[in-house]
Batch of 3 targets.
Target 1
Amino acid sequence: MYFPRPKMLSPIVHPTKCCDVHETEVYQVPHIHPTHTTVHHHKLFEHVHTCPNTVSHVSNVAHQHINCCPGPMPYLGGGPGMAPGMMAPGMAPEMGMLSPGMAPGMGMMCQRPYSY
């Protein structure tokens, strides 16, 4: 089998296809951005006021002598001319602390209390 040779025609030329190749070369450019930090120290004085309190206690004492005996009370002076420890007339211990004209059991009504 025999094939005849094809006939050659003139070539058709297409537009040129452009291909790009990118090459990167790295350059470092230093940029300096200076910063400054200021630290502020604050001192706070807290003045704490206290009010200490003291407490005083005062006690009042009163004495009351109630005369349930007839006649003046000998330990209260007994009247003019009487000294402490002296007894009024008729108040001698051997007489049972009775005033003249008094018998046991008489005159036991209490007089108004003496306060000082």
Note: The radius of gyration is 68 Å.
Target 2
Amino acid sequence: MPRRAAREEGHPIGVSLFLPSGKGLLDTGLWTSDRNRPAELAREKPRATPATTVATLVESAARAGTEIPIQPLDELADDVLRGIQAGEYCLMLGRDAAAATLRERAERFSVGLNPTQAGHTLLPV
């Protein structure tokens, strides 16, 4: 049932799209999800190397002289809660900057140009 129809019938249903974003890598535990895999769904071929974790990625990058920032999950959670309470559909940190980039890309697309440029992302630089 579409959101509008649900609300018109008195059902307090809302929909939001959360686009994980922010100032760095999200340390959510997703990278180590194998720990939750049921035995009956075990890999047919076991890993030859340990699974990469956020900690090992950050450590490897540090050894190479690169810092990988970590996005505080509490900050994302606060923003998501605020957006849901405000009835917003698209939930992400830096939405205004992303919207400007998307408008620029749409303009380039509308005149037949490649909408993206090398190194151009939705993330603020």
Note: Strands lie at 17-18, 90-91.
Target 3
Amino acid sequence: MTTSTPTSAIRAATPGPGGRPGRPTRRGARAPVAVAIAVVAALVAWLRLPPVARDTLWAEDGRVFVQQRAAGDPFESWFVPYDGYLHVVPRIVADLAWSWLPVGSLASGVTVLSCLVAGVVAAGVWCCSRGLVASPVVQLALAAVTVLVPLAPLEVSGNLANLHWYLLWLTPFLLLHRHRSATSTVLASVAALLIGLTEIQAVLLVPLVVLARLVRRRTAPSRRDLVPVVVLCAALVAQLVVAALTPRADAPGAASTVPQVVLGYLTSVVLGTWVPSASVMGDLLDLAGWAVVLVAAVPFVASALVVVRSFSHSTVRGSDDDASGRVASGRMVLAPVAAVASVGLWTLDVVVNHGPDTRFWFADPGRVAELGLTRYGVVPSMFLLVVVLCAVDALLLSTRRRLRAAGAAALVVLAVVAATWFVGPDTVRADGPRWERSLGTAGDVCDGGAEVADVAGAPAGWGALLPCDVVDDVP
């Protein structure tokens, strides 16, 4: 098999001498496209949530971010640590929601703003994937993964408490991208600052990306490329200082064992990418055992082999070596970074956050349905899909028609999977309580003479304590 790339296609998609693209690019024309991607992606994220979930505050959204903003002034809570680290982006969004929106629309407004953040991240992935993959279709597909990954509606999508996962997803694209203008560098640096002050787990990705840059062929980073890396490192230092000064509470229960970590990855991440439903997954495992997981892993293993093959072939071509080497080296860096990040982030999360929802037992696959899936599988699943899309990129640029057809077929399969699970089957807040009803109950408490009322959210016990003068003002 060969995945060699047509010379004309490569020259159009890869940098030429001096770091400039081989074909003139209108940078101004990319801005409207990025805005359109952000808006469409935000709408997709919104539509994937059940109606009740859109009007329900989830966990820290109410009890921490909204409640602390309601108790203070604008900007006051932005740098307040919670559970051992800073959460700047969720706090900024909560501040905007509280300042701009009527209290009666707060829950749905928080969902809209959270979906918009996901949309902006999708646009960022699209912008930064240029130069890492050559096919414009694959660049769009990478952006689409942000909001179409099957596991997202489970818990991650549409709330403040899980915005940090989207920032984590953006991180390797941001750091691997070659920034060719001052504007790009400034925007990337601002994004890196927000990532570092929100997502402490990015500390795992920085050395991985730096190492990948050191081994990347023919494309040593420029000073502009290093600025976002330095900014992110500085922000992460601040996070580590906060973590040292305000340590988080220990996770309950016994630590996860190695078999639990491995089998959890195989079920929640590998199989969960294709079947993001705990009940369906449990039925499949009961029916066919762990052979189902092996079948689910085949596309990822095959994709990794295609990426390696495309790189090794590009290095032996004659006149096309320079151009094809540039395309394949970007792909060859992105795919391993994504694969290692997938395994590393899952391992970090389930070891640090061990508990009942991260334990999986080899002898009883039916427990997957009992325990359910976990948010810790979402970003690792997204990074596995990056490996698949890197392979698709290599296939679509092949000189062989059958390989290009295979790449197109792979995209169709991914689209079918995304459409099948468009609305999440197991969204954790699908049963409410709706914010409007919670406000009505809180109003009854205030009518009884209370000064503060608990406006219920999901899960139980995670509502927002709001002053009764605010609750009473709701029409």
Note: Residues 321-352 form the longest helix (32 residues).
